[in-house]
Structure formats: structure tokens, C-alpha cells
């Protein structure tokens, strides 16, 4: 059985993990409706350099409310990493659909045939003070089992350059 966004919405613990990073308790779980103030604090504190690589409409409570309101309404799955279940220090966004122009672009430019059933777009955002500490790598290890449960084999990661990672 393949895990769906509805399954995750009804049972967030299906993909939630708790672990330690540099001695801190980290909870990595789906974004919840009750997270809007925590998410607003995270967004407001992102530095200008981090914002250059982000595609947010804003970095405030309104944007946080929009993201929380969108839970299980569109093609997005958002996970957050929290210190001691309180402070969000990372937001990972997964797009469960692939837009039409990407099929053509990937095929023509990279020779890659995308498949919405097995491929998923992925965008991480880590708070400035946790960048360059391998925190993203730590969280990515948590992402891989979730992707497998969702029937995904490849993640399409957009950063400064395109990177496709085989999950299996």
C-alpha cells in the first residue's frame, strides 16, 4: 500500500521522527494547522541570503497562515523540523504533482523522463544558524524512507543547480 497525503494528514505520526542533532532533540514532522505562529517566527528570521533562494510570497504571519491553511488542500506536503517540539528550524516542501512545462524541459534539456507517480519535487529551507552544519543531510536521511512509503523513487531538488537523487 502506498502512503498518500490524506493518510499523512490523518496520521502525521506515520512519517514523524524524533532524533538528536548536535545534542538537541529534533522533531521532524508534517506541518500542522497549529504551527502558524512557530512558522511565522521561522520565516521572519530567515536572512536575506536564504530568502534569495526561497520562493515565498512573504516572510510573516500571513504567509505562515496561508501555508498552514493549505495543508492537504493542494499538491504540497510540508515538513518542519523543531527543536524540543517548539522552535521551527527547517521547512521542507514537497510538490506531489509535476507541472506540464517541467516534463518537456527535463526531457529536452536533461534527457530525463519525469513520472508523477515515481517522482516528486523537493525544496528545503533551513534557518540560517543551522546551515553548513550538515543538518540538511541529517533531515534528508529522514526524508528517504517517507518517499519510499509514498511510492517515490526520485526527488527533484532545486538549489543553485538541479540535482536528481534516486531514493532506492
Automatic annotation (TrEMBL):
Which named protein is this? Answer: N-acetyltransferase domain-containing protein
Can you name the source organism? Rotaria socialis
